[in-house]
Amino acid sequence: MLTLYHCADARSFRPLWTLEELGLTYQLNMLPFPPRLLAKDYLGVNPLGTIPTLLDDGARMTESAAMIQYLAARYGEGRLDVPVQDARYAAYLNWLHFGEATLTFPQTLVLRYTRLEPEDRRQPQVAGDYRRWFLARLRGVEAALADERPYLCGEAFTGADISVGYALLLAQTLGIEEAFTGPVRVYWDRLTAREAYRRARRVQAQAANDQGVAAAQVTSALKP
Where does the GST N-terminal domain lie (predicted)? Predict the structure, then answer.
């Protein structure tokens, strides 16, 4: 049984969305944020206390973008993945990691210094600088979509769209989505119209309710 440890709308939303796209059976364990402080037992699963953790047949993973690649390669049967011999393979891998390393990273600093730190430790200038950094890097997504392709790797929806799509979800959470340009806005609307995306949103809300975990305040798992 695949098991995913998840906080509402954290980076773990990437593998949750992937699981729904692939129609896999899994167990979803909801945790309060941040689990390293509010769910100390979780340190027995992931000593770092970060989200996500994915367990599968003895394997344990803690990186959200890697989980997308793993699930697609192992269970996708051609869905969400791009074969190594495909001319789009390099672009697929690049976008898969771009979503986390280039787009999500600066947003975690915006989150930290506008919402997570105590009032006296918040840094508006730092948050503003990294907000601008995110928006500058988002131009890469805009350029890729300028030819009106539906997805980052062309006609097919792939795991790369899940990785980048989560960064856009986090931007919405932080109030940065107001700066989405036309192509990015159309792309975001297309992603959020996918039934698997909507199922993932419903599943996390229902699981949070069933497991007694507050999911009203949407945050992202911030690695120390």
Answer: 1-79
- Token pair 């039934």 is found at 195
Instruction: Kindly calculate the radius of gyration of the chain based on its CA atoms and give it in whole angstroms.
Output: 17
CA distance 15 to 67: 6
Rounded distance between C-alpha atoms, residue 36 and residue 31, angstroms: 10
What are the helix (H) ranges across 7-50?
A: 13-22, 35-38
pLDDT in tens, 181-201: 899 999 999 999 999 999 999
- CATH number for 89-194 (one of 3.40.630.30, 1.20.1050.10, 2.130.10.10, 1.10.150.130): it is 1.20.1050.10
Within 10 A of 102 (CB to CB), how many other CB atoms are there? 19
Range among 57-61, 109-113, 209-213 with highest mean pLDDT value: 57-61
pLDDT of 179 = 80
